[in-house]
Amino acid sequence: MAQKKISRYEDSDLYKIRHSAAHIMAQAVTELFPPGEAKVAIGPPIEDGFYYDFDLPRQLKPEDFPAIEKRMRAIIGGKFEFKKRVVSADEAKREFKGQPYKLELIEGLEKGGFDEYGNPLKEKPEISFYTHDSFTDLCRGPHVANTGQINPDAFKLMNIAGAYWRGDEKNKQLQRIYGTAWETAQQLEEYLWRQEEAKKRDHRKLGKELGLFYFSDDIGPGIPLFTPKGEMLRHIAENYIRETQTRYGFQHVWTANLVKEDLYKKSGHYDNYADVMFPPMVGDGVTYRLKPMNCPSHMTLFKEMGLHSYRELPLRFSEFATLYRYEKSGELTGLARVRTVTQDDCHTFCTEEQIGSECALTFKLFNEVFARYRFSSYVVRLSLRGEGGKYVKDPEKWDRAEAALRKALDENNVEYYEAEGEAAFYGPKADIIARDVLGREWQLSTFQVDFIQPARLGLTYIGEDNQEHTPVVLHRAVMGSTERFLAVIIEHFAGAFPVWLAPVQAVLIPIADRHTAYAQKVAEQLKAAGLRVEVNAGSDRMSAKIRDAQNQKVPYMLVMGDKEMESGAVALRLRSGEDLGAISVDAFLSRAKEDIEKGD
Ligand SMILES: [Zn+2]
Ligand SMILES: [Zn+2]
């Protein structure tokens, strides 16, 4: 079957537009200063836009943006052609005399090994210029044909940030100007709306407002504390995965948080993963580590269970296990990056022939879960080994694993793009990157083929031929990690979870004290039917209680006064503000059950 590939951003028109906009901005910024005074560094396109780093005689402010944007529009209006020229290193140095950052980049290109952004390269690159109007940049392109192909109404300068030259804090701090550019004004408008919306949905902000989780200096950075409501959300999300994977034939196991360090020496984690592991602990002369990954524990369990026959395979071990990873403190971001990360991990032990059908089963599971969470779509990145030392050296096993994963994806009509240098140290991965309601991409699930760890740990099964064989291990996660997944869905739903997922599904609101006993009685009835409810018996006015429940994004509010009490009813309001009037308790229950089933 023909291999399906998704086109890369680097090949798109938007990439060219943004790359070109970066040059145009650099021209406009340098023209603010007398010739030669503004020093330019690098200016690549990035997701949704571009930036350029400058070393300038004065600090720029957002108030400078209108003038820079105006000049950019004039340059666009000039329809200047982007002309490419391949030059010698000497010529390049002459052109950029007085531009120390460019000279350093040219030297890197001359020596080979680095591109103009300082990224390592396999081959010595050619040195090329792109010139438009009066501005020349050291660049490999690609660009639009002329500046007129940038839509003057579809770009905007966003903000200024400090950025160290080459990302190294020992170097000088430069001024980085971020911009965004699109094909149409409407796309720009939608992007700006998404940016605003993303700020409102920030899970760190919502987590506080909804009372879901906290971080404390007394506990330590990157180690969250979950409130009863937050833990309820965790529990529902994890339980849903647990039940779904049980239905798909995955079995759950339990392995402890503490493991002898020697096991990680055998598995390869000690050599390839040590910087992420917490320091060792010694007791009775034995060195232990906090578990950074489940694979060696699950593989050891497989071994301890005795001799396996091919008839038992595939054997799928799943576990929600909290792992301990020493993430850099600067990279900790709310729940999205923590040091105690709970993976919904699975290791499937199977034969090489079973990889394809296991891939099919796993993608069916992914599809079901993503639909439940209303992710509109996802892309798959086939992460392959790359240059560098982080990959276990066993080219024969790597070739087989990469071929097997590619074949499994192709057989199952999974579209993907390839990325070198993104594999795990023990094998290639298919990483699932889901799109949320704002179109943002989040790497969640993964499906990995491993020929290396099972061999290193001495796993075997007896095949049909009565001989010992090494099983393949497929590593798989659906949510990725509970914490990060919660961060994603808090933002995806803006805290207004569907009824099935909401930690509190209904708040009962008695209007006066004399209605409280009735509210308690109805609450018991709803709890007995399996709903998660709270009674707000406080002294606030009804309107304040309704507002509070709306702010907490509780799906249903059940208001109760004399009329409702007499007729055994509740007045139903939704968090949208919709007032549906009085209905019987039974009618409310069937509505709630329907909403839960529909996934609303
Ligand atoms: Zn360029
Ligand atoms: Zn694993």
Task: Describe this protein with a few key phrases.
600 residues; alpha+beta; Threonyl-tRNA Synthetase, Chain A, domain 2; BirA Bifunctional Protein, domain 2; eight-stranded mixed beta sheet; 18 helices; binds zinc ion
Write the layout of secondary structure elements.
Elements: H1 13-30, E1 39-40, E2 45-46, E3 49-55, H2 65-77, E4 83-87, H3 89-95, H4 100-111, E5 127-132, E6 135-138, E7 155-164, E8 173-181, H5 185-201, H6 203-209, E9 213-214, E10 225-226, H7 228-247, E11 251-252, E12 258-260, H8 261-267, H9 269-272, E13 281-283, E14 286-290, H10 295-304, E15 315-324, E16 340-350, H11 355-372, E17 377-384, H12 395-411, E18 417-420, E19 429-435, E20 441-450, H13 453-456, E21 461-462, E22 468-469, E23 472-481, H14 482-492, E24 506-510, H15 516-528, E25 533-535, H16 542-551, E26 556-560, H17 562-567, E27 569-574, E28 579-584, H18 585-598
Parallel strand pairs: 11-15, 17-18, 24-25, 24-26
Antiparallel strand pairs: 1-3, 2-3, 3-8, 4-5, 5-6, 7-8, 9-10, 12-14, 13-14, 15-16, 16-23, 17-19, 19-20, 20-23, 21-22, 26-27, 27-28
Helix pairs in contact: 1-2, 6-14, 11-12
The chain binds zinc ion (2 copies).
